[in-house]
Specification:
binds beta-D-ribofuranose; alpha/beta; 13 helices; binds calcium ion; 39% helix; Inosine-uridine Nucleoside N-ribohydrolase, Chain A; 9 strands
Amino acid sequence: MAEKIILDVDTGHDDMVAIVMASGLEEIDLLGVVAVAGNQVLEKTLHNTLNVCQLIGESAPVFAGMDRPIIRERVVAGDIHGKSGLDGPTFPPLNKQAERGHGVNFIIDTVMGNPHEVTLVPTGPLSDIAMAIRLEPRLPKVVKQIVLMGGSLGAGNRTPYAEFNIFADGEAASIVFNSGAPIVMMGLDVTLQVLLDRERLDRYSRFSSKTATMFNASMKHYMAACRLHGAEYPAMHDPCCVAYVADPTIFTTEEHSIEVELKDEERYGKTIALPPTPNKPTLVGMGADTSLFWPLLERAFSNLP
Ligand code: BDR
Ligand code: CA
């Protein structure tokens, strides 16, 4: 049976790829998509999410989530994802609309209404998930698992210590990691192994479907932006979470319990691995068999317009 998931995205370039994979893979039953502020302000991440869903023909409901971190000031990642948050592709006029109601309530109602069946897949700052846990404290015991993109056991990418999604709302991340929910952390340790190289981009540029055309235009921007920031090839951070849900055997993991640095400003948002404890179970992705990852993306392409 397909895995029921809710995506919580700050649609940016790699979030877009996560949506494509979640929509196009038979292993996944996409119940809904919530947009959160992160790579850009909420208005833009919501707009991008609706554009992507409309273009690929995804009919799952889209909701607006939190427009800011739960305590701190908003930070965005315009240097990588551009002014729109998804610079590169052009989209047809947008008809798909966000649902009424708040994304956090959608998360709570869906998880509580399908006990032990729903996997949450946050690929942006954890503001919505933390807020859902605060509003419904039973959620960590009822959710199947939370497979998140964020953190790093080594260096960060937003600061020398912190990965962007955790840095953008460290307090939210701390609530989630301390909630007792079963968590899988797809952090930089693993996502930086899944790189889109020039050869693969050239191969995909021969695919001419609407979805592949959007992917190719997005990735051209993403690759150039990553180059400007010293990375030869862009990482497929967010789709690693969807790939894990579809086929966990792609990844190797280690069990830890994760603490988030909140007090020391210089190291704010660093994810610190401590010995595993039963009340804070986190599997941290450490290795990826990329030969199993790309066929998933290609199958998603072939299932989408
Ligand atoms: C994360 O930060 C964002 O810019 C990407 O979309 C990804 O979720 C990587 O650090
Ligand atoms: Ca993201």
